[in-house]
Amino acid sequence: MELLCPAGSLPALKAAVDNGADWVYLGLRDDTNARNFPGLNFDDAALAAGLAYAHARRRRVLMAVNTYPQAGNWARWTAAVDRAARLGADAIIVADAGLIAYARDAHPRLELHLSVQGSATSHEAINFFHERFGVKRAVLPRVLSLAQVEQVARRTPAEIEVFGFGSLCVMVEGRCMLSAYACGEAPNMSGACSPAHAVRWQETPAGLESRLNGVLIDRYAPGERAAYPTVCKGRYAAAGEAYYAFEEPASLNTLELLPEFARIGVRAVKIEGRQRSPAYVAQVTRVWREAIDALQAGTFAPRPAWAAALARHAEGSQTTLGAFSRPWK
Amino acid sequence: MKLALGPLLYYWPRAAVLGFYEAIAAAPVDTVYLGEVVCSRRHEVPFEDWLAIGGRLAAAGKEVVLSAQALTESEGDLKLQRRTAANGRFGVEANDWGAARLLAGTRGWVAGPHLNVYNPQTLALLAQMGATRWVAPVEATRELVAGVLAERPAGLEAEVFGYGRMPLAFSARCFTARRLNRQKEDCGYACLDFPDGLALDTREGKPFLAVNGIQTLSAGVYCLAEELAALREAGVDCLRVSPQSSGTVEVLRTLRAACEGRLSSFDARKALGALAPGKLWNGFWHGRPGMQAA
Asked: How do strand A199-204 and strand B198-201 relate by DSSP bridges?
């Protein structure tokens, strides 16, 4: 079982490597990846330094080029793929079929992983990318049950990667335009969900309000914990009653499922959070490294210290199994 | 400009579905997309009955296309996807790459709006695989559509979502069941009670979204009635109307009259505003937030 950890900066990359990541994934400082936030991500110098640091310690680096190039800006995406190949990234994570075809033709030796943004939820879809373009691994959207993940893994020669921990997309990745609907920018075209420049916090007589481009996402009573205002974690009213219509602020945590993942043939687990701090990366990576080592030693049992460490970094201090839990659906 | 009726996104009682398509058989629409694209639990109209409805509409001179389910999770979903792809009578709209794989090598299928085609390179790949129509993602701007079609593969038609509540997201979770504190597998088919989706307002009472089982739609209604000239100029061949519980035939008549120049775009918009279950919005086409009107 391989562990993939996020890096939004060189210190985060080092934290991931130092704490036991097998792979570190990162992106460039633009809209070619799905964490296009100001001050985050890698320029060429940081990328070269990060690659050198990881490779000297025999870890691998993945570059995410996982948003959708559009008519008119295609060249920015192919340039990102070319940079990954030229600077020596070990693989790229891609969503757009046309861009995958480009990478296969231009850089036949560059390893290709299908991004979660590619929305491939069945072996039929994954096999399309595997057969046609040699895609080696697919990251599954957070919609399948364990039995469904097992079915997929059995019926494709591609390696299967699932999410282990981090902020939870309630919607199928690559198929959510909620943020574009409210503020004009969403992951597919802009590489951002609820971008900070569109978010406003305001104290009002009715309580603390969070807005996205003017749309009231939530309002908090005194003492209530406020969460970052993504559309899917807001409270709305249906027939007069305000409630979390989609999901409470909570993070995915599948640590307890590690033995099941191993049994059904999952090849890798991914930690979400390129937008998070190096301290987050260090602590979350360390917990998962210990857990995977215990699994491989045959001594795996969930430890309270692991749960406590992960809960500290969870949205709203809550964790969920998401679609792996039947009642969640 | 041709008109298409997109797949019925909501869950209506069987008699309502049959009555709806009986009316559509006599309505001014060129293409009708049929089938359940949202939720595999819905069973009022089984696959065989969709074929029968297709036969009725084909006899009335409509082009019939079967739309494949957008989110496939189970082996049952894949079985239905295979039956749809291999139906042998009607065209098929692929809404994920699994369906595209099944259709590759056949000719005359539709690359649906959920395939995420944002550039000419991906469209060329689909055309090579045999797709002959592209339905743009609902968030596509005018520039994007024109840019993709500037390098249009030979023989490929372009369709744009032109009227209806915007399909914005899918999930594994059922939000209609969640509203009623039920689990998805014991949902009681609650979607039957919300023929245009379950409205969600912000906490200050503004219409925002509509929940339709595992799908989330806009509260407002996308409307490109005033953009017909720009749509033609961009190379769009067909405008998609999404079914709503009342007034769909009137919507089609209004848009047909506008396309044929019998109704001004101003009057068309006014008429559609009176038929829509929400405000009319067109932000996406203009590169703005979807819930705005330019």
From this structure: unpaired
pLDDT higher than 80, residue A83: yes
Q: Which domain holds residue B84?
A: 2-165+221-263
Please check the confidence at residue A250 and state whether its pLDDT lies above 90: no
- Tokens representing residue B59 in the block: 């006899």
Instruction: Tell me what the pLDDT averaged over chain B comes to.
Output: 97
Residue A212, C-beta contacts closer than 8 angstroms, at least 6 positions apart: A179, A182, A183, A194, A198, A199, A229, A230, A231
Asked if residues B6 and B33 have their Cβ atoms less than 8 Å apart, the reply is yes
- CB spacing of A329 vs B143 below 8 angstroms: no
Q: Which of A101, A171, A180 sits opposite B121 (nearest CB)?
A: A101
- Closest alpha carbon within chain A to B184: A329
The domain tally of chain A equals: 2
Q: Which of B70, B125, B139 sits opposite A186 (nearest CB)?
A: B139
pTM over 0.95, yes/no: yes
Give the per-residue pLDDT at A109: 97
Cβ-nearest to A236 among B73, B122, B202 = B202
Task: Please measure the distance between the N-terminal and C-terminal CA atoms of chain B and give it in whole angstroms.
Answer: 22
- B116/A216 CB distance under 8 A: no
Same domain, A96 and A219: no
Average pLDDT rounded to a whole number, residues B108-137: 98
A102 and A30, same domain (yes or no): yes
- Nearest CA-CA distance, residue B219 and chain A, Å: 11
* Same structural domain, A196 and A320: no
What pLDDT sits at residue A316?
Answer: 77
Q: Which of A225, A244, A263 is the last residue of a domain?
A: A244
Q: Answer yes or no: is A270 within a domain.
A: yes
